């Protein structure tokens, strides 16, 4: 005889309590504490954080405020080919994107432009919830992460796992705190004196012999190279970030109270979101910040040595002062030989 409790009418809550036994997942919450840089990288590549990010839950979410360190302390030298002036790229988020774009022994051409849009109330509301991304694949992957969290919320309600739902809500609250802080820190600040209508042409020397040539209006170049990206946190913001971090650790400690199926669901959500967001970051084709966008143009050009690149650009620009200041050529050299010690690169 078939027992009465085995039928198509078994409540979902009963199934969730009686299924999947023999496996202990009391430490499942530790997955959220893994120091992955996925959310930090997303913050740097988009230049900010939107409120839709509250549904993006993946390991390392408590480290979002550390996004300013992803450039590995590199602030590359840059020369203005139009004026010979040499300075540094001061924006760590811009450096990160240029590092991803660059290729050893190659010159990559890129352009900076203004992102189209109007300063209306609707535009402000839209930008608060969605970061523009010209890549369809990247946008679709990002949306999949948010939908995964929404589906998880509905599933936990259906199975009646209130502990798991509370843990998920705690993680989302932690994300909201960090989002608010990032948006407050990433306001446009000092960018130098405006130079309307002036065109700029920059050569950026990254580590590992990666070379970027960046063109655009000088004001647009200043917006993404000069000044600060995210200012230092105030005491209140620092306290709020610390509370958000502690909330993630508390949620990890309380994960053992969830049902077995709830633990598996939370762990699967964290792993799935990490994979989807990482894929989305990898497919970002343009870097956007402060209403400007950087995008590669054409194919990267290979050079046998750095001197060949310098000679070509000197011939094109008709000046060599920038190359001298960057150390790409020696004083008194010509396009063929150096007077003094010759270093082949």
Describe the structure.
- The protein is α+β, with helices and mostly antiparallel strands.
- It has helices at 12-18, 38-46, 92-101, 121-129, 136-159, 162-185, 218-225, 235-254, 260-282, 306-317, 321-326, and strands spanning 77-80, 86-88, 106-114, 199-206, 210-217, 286-289, 292-296, 301-302.
- α2 runs parallel beside α9 (260-282), α5 (136-159) runs antiparallel to α9 and α6 packs antiparallel against α8 (235-254).
- The protein is elongated, with a radius of gyration of 25 Å.
Q: In percent terms, what proportion of residues is strand?
A: 5-15%
Q: What is the count of β-strands?
A: 8
Can you give the helix content as a percent range?
A: 40-55%
Number of alpha- plus pi-helical segments: 11
The secondary structure category is alpha+beta
- Round the Cα radius of gyration to an integer and report it: 25 Å
Provide mean pLDDT, rounded.
86
- Coarse morphology: elongated
Low-confidence stretches: 1-8, 335-345
Largest sheet: 8 strands, mixed
The first-to-last residue Cα distance is 84 Å
Order of helix and strand elements from N to C terminus: HHEEHEHHHEEHHHEEEHH
């Amino acid at each position: 005889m078939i027992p009465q409790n085995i039928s198509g009418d078994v409540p979902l809550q009963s199934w969730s309590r009686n299924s999947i036994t023999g496996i202990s997942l009391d430490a499942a919450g530790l997955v959220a504490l893994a120091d992955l840089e996925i959310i930090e990288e997303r913050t740097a590549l988009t230049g900010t954080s939107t409120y839709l990010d509250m549904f993006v839950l993946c390991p390392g979410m408590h480290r979002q405020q550390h996004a300013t360190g992803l450039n590995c302390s590199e602030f590359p030298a840059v020369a203005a080919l139009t004026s010979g002036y040499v300075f540094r790229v001061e924006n760590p988020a811009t450096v990160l994107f240029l590092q991803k774009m660059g290729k050893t022994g190659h010159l990559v051409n890129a352009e900076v432009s203004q992102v189209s849009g109007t300063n209306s109330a609707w535009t402000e509301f839209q930008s608060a919830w969605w970061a523009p991304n010209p890549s369809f694949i990247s946008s679709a992957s990002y949306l999949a992460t948010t939908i995964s969290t929404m589906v998880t919320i509905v599933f936990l309600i259906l199975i009646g796992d209130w502990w798991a739902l509370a843990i998920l809500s705690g993680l989302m609250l932690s994300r909201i705190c960090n989002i608010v802080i990032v948006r407050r820190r990433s306001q446009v600040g000092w960018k130098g004196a405006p130079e309307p209508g002036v065109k700029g042409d920059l050569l950026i020397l990254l580590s590992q012999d990666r070379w970027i040539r960046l063109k655009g209006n000088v004001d647009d170049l200043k917006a993404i190279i000069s000044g600060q990206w995210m200012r230092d946190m105030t005491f209140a913001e620092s306290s709020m970030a610390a509370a958000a971090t502690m909330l993630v650790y508390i949620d990890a400690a309380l994960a053992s109270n969830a049902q077995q199926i709830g633990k598996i669901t939370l762990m699967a959500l964290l792993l799935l979101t990490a994979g989807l967001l990482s894929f989305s970051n990898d497919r970002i084709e343009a870097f956007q910040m402060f209403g400007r966008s950087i995008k590669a143009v054409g194919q990267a050009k290979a050079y046998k040595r750095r001197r060949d690149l310098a000679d070509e650009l000197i011939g094109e620009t008709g000046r060599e002062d920038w190359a001298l200041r960057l150390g790409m050529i020696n004083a008194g050299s010509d396009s063929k030989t150096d007077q003094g010690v010759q270093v082949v690169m």
